[in-house]
Design goal:
The protein is an all-alpha fold. Helices cover 72% and strands 0% of the residues.
Length: 176
Amino acid sequence: MGRPKKSAGGQPADSVNAGAPDAGVADVGAPSAAPSWKLTEDLLKTLNQELGGLKEYVLADLRGEITSLRSKKLQLETDINRLQSHWDSLVSDRDRAQQQQWAQQFSQVMAQNLLQDLQAQLLGTDATGTERPDQRPEQRLLILREQIAGLESVLGGRSLGFVTNWAATKAPSASR
């Protein structure tokens, strides 16, 4: 520390520039401040232009994303409609299959009941299986043939030959 710095002329550095403003420090009121304001205005204009360009870029990117999302939404709506149609078809098929199953079960029960009725009439028994003495085998066979003919007409002419054959095999045993 000790010794003060000297300028090129040998005088201390503080005394060389004693009356003049420092060249590195801008005086606000001095004419050299105008280029500094101009530089700030140019920077602001450039920043505004850059921000405007960035804004346009972001808006264009967002528009692209919106368009893409709308396209995906339409595709999803189409897929949903297709799946709904497929679901409706499956439900319809299921309902139809249930109805067919019910009809088949109903027809099986009806056929079984009819067969039991025919057996009872052919054998001359009542609903409990007790033999009815008031019917002779000839009467039972006549009633059975009438019922078979009626059933064949209801079924559109389809033959009930299996019932007729069964009745023929049972008739002799019932006439004992």
